[in-house]
Every structure is written in C-alpha cells, then in structure tokens.
Design brief:
D-Maltodextrin-Binding Protein, domain 2; 5-stranded mixed sheet; binds manganese (II) ion; binds 2,5-anhydro-1,6-di-O-phosphono-D-glucitol; about 325 residues; 8-stranded mixed sheet; about 30% helix
Length: about 325
C-alpha cells in the first residue's frame, strides 16, 4: 500500500531531526487545524451566509469581508490557549494581539494574513491564509510589544500558506525545503503530496496587475515590455500572463510551474511603500520561494533582509524563478 505521510508524521520527523521544537510543532499543528476550520467555512459559501461585506474597515482602511473577520477569529481563538505563543499579529488587527492572561505564554510570535485575496471570495475563486513564525526576543512573561515583532524575514523559523482552491493545500517551510500537504477531507488530516518543491527556472509566465502599467517605474516598464514583445523582442520567446489577484494563488502557481510574480512599487502605492504587507505577506512568501530555490526582492533588496519599521509595513514584491527575479532587480540597480 502507498505510504502516506501525514503533517503530524512530517513534523515529528522534523522534531527528531532537531529542526522543530515541541512548541513549534504544536504551533504548526494548531495553525493547520485552524486552516481546516477556515477551509470548511469557505467551502460552505453562500449556504453558511459567509459571503459579502462585514460592514467594517480594518486598520489599513480596507473594507472587511465577512470571511476576513471569521478567518481572523478562527486563527486567534485556535492559537491563544495552547501555551506555545507569546503573542500574535494580524492584518485585521491594528495592535499586537496578546495572549489572554489566564493562559500560559510560550516563546513564539505568530503573524498572519487570515484571508488573502478577499476580492475573490464572492466570485468563488481561490483565496488563502498566509502565516509567519518568529521567536519572541523578549522575556517570557512580559507582554510582547510591536518592536519585538520587527525582525527581518531571515529570522523566521517557519512560514507557510494555505490555498483554498479545488483542493485545500498547506504549503510549509521550517527552514529545510518547501513542502505542500493536501487536505484529505474524509480523513480530516493533511497528507504530504509535494515534498521539496522547486521553482522551475525555465519559465515563460508572468503575473502582474497590468492595469497599473502607467504607474510603474521605468525598470518594471522595461522588463514587462520586453516580455510582451515575445519572439520578436530582446527575449526571443513568447511569454504568457496570469493574474488571479490572490497572492496565495498566484504564488502557488509560480511555486508549482515557475514564473515571476510582481507587485512592484508604483506611483499609486509609493506613499505607502508598496501594496503588499511585509510581515505577513512578503516575508513568509519570500522564505517559501527561497527554500524552493527561487528568489524574492523588492527590486532593490532581498525581501528577507528588509529591516521592518512597522507591523503593517508595506513593501514592493518581485518573486519567483531566480533568473527572472535577478533580471528585474538588475534593471532597478543600474
Ligand atoms: P488581501 O485580500 O489580504 O488584502 O490581499 C490582497 C492582495 C493580494 O492577495 C493580491 O496579490 C493583491 O492584493 C491584488 O491586488 P489588486 O487588486 O491591486 O490586483
Ligand atoms: Mn493578502
Ligand atoms: Mn487579507
């Protein structure tokens, strides 16, 4: 019989290899459980009355969907009582989320984008959850403050995302490779289906919101125009374009079959520093892509080396097949 490795077995293996502590294993199991709950809720859709607007705004001034709020609650409640966390941070919450005083505290910080690609919920297109795990640098019993979270992405001890698509997949790294697990709905657990994923380097696909073209900087204009010239242009090959508007879904495609994903700096988002959030979108995705042999930069700097200044900081993102990311980055750095 085909030997199927569950997420639990995988994590125990990582613990025995010394790459995952008992608390980190618990943390990742709890996140996976929350992801399962979010997956069930999302798949019920209109039947459970979870589509549409929540009628509220988050800290970033974005209208919240009902599922933004529900996914956030599921993650916070699942993670607050286990004793593995010092605190949490979420796209949907302005300040650090403290562990209620009647529960013990642990040594890790968990950051997440509970529901990524919110604009796709109501049209039944793939959305996701993105998360990042850091160590709490401060003393164990003190309440962590924002500054404790402001560590560059290279300090992450684990990162991952869930893609709620035709199947639900959990993609995870604990610093040794990027691995995808598929949810077996009947059995109720995640099964390792894509160990050691690699971003193919030979690629002919790019993902960018081309409606922003007139706002892009010159290096991005140049790069995309070269791709669009196809066989007749300087690249001597045709390139195809895909844009789902869920970072999780777009990055999952890049991880699976190569390509480049870009939400670059442009005149529309310059004042904010970019569109995507550094701590719970760019950093975890950059770690997953690097662990799969790809690259991730802001156009000017490796994402994992950016020193965060704020919890909800935004950053330009260019990630995917190494050669392509290096090419766009070199256009910025001439
Ligand atoms: P979120 O739903 O968590 O706010 O993130 C949406 C992000 C990301 O998923 C996606 O790549 C991007 O916004 C899409 O932006 P556009 O609508 O500008 O294409
Ligand atoms: Mn997002
Ligand atoms: Mn979100």
């Amino acid at each position: 019989m085909l030997q199927r490795i569950s997420l639990t077995q995988f994590l125990i293996g990582e613990q025995r290899a010394g790459r995952v502590s008992a608390d980190l294993r618990l943390l990742l199991e709890v996140v996976a459980r929350a992801v399962k709950a979010i997956s069930v809720t999302i798949s019920k859709g209109a039947l459970a009355g979870v589509l549409g607007e929540a009628g509220t705004e988050n800290v970033q001034g974005e209208a919240q969907k009902k599922l933004d709020v529900i996914a956030n609650e599921i993650l916070l409640q699942a993670n607050e009582w286990g004793g593995h966390l010092a605190a949490m941070a979420s796209e949907e919450v302005e300040n650090v989320c403290q562990i209620p005083f009647d529960y013990p505290k642990g040594g890790y910080l968990l950051l997440f984008d509970p529901l990524d690609g919110s604009s796709n919920i109501d049209v039944n297109v793939t959305v996701g959850t993105i998360f990042s795990v850091l160590k709490n640098p401060a003393k164990k019993d003190a309440d962590p403050v924002e500054a404790d979270f402001l560590q560059p992405g290279r300090e992450q001890v684990a990162a991952g995302y869930a893609a709620y698509g035709p199947s639900t997949q959990l993609v995870l790294t604990v610093g040794k490779g990027t691995h995808a697990f598929t949810l077996d709905r009947e059995m109720g657990f995640f099964v390792l289906t894509h160990p050691y994923m690699t971003v193919p380097d030979e690629t002919r696909e790019y993902a960018i919101n081309a409606s922003n073209e007139r706002y892009w900087e010159a290096p991005v204009q140049r790069y995309i125009s070269e791709l669009r010239q196809g066989k007749e242009g300087p690249r001597g090959a045709d390139f195809n374009m895909r844009w789902i508007a869920s970072m999780v879904a777009d990055v999952h495609r890049v991880l699976t079959r190569g390509g480049i994903f870009m939400y670059p700096l442009d005149e529309k988002t310059r004042a904010k520093g970019g569109k995507l959030r550094l701590m719970y979108e760019a950093n975890p995705m950059a770690m997953l892509i690097e662990q799969a042999g790809g690259a991730a930069t802001t156009g000017r700097q490796r994402i994992l080396d950016v020193q965060p200044q704020k919890l909800h900081q935004r950053v330009p993102v260019i990630l995917g097949s190494r050669a392509e990311v290096e090419r766009v980055t070199s256009y910025h750095n001439v």
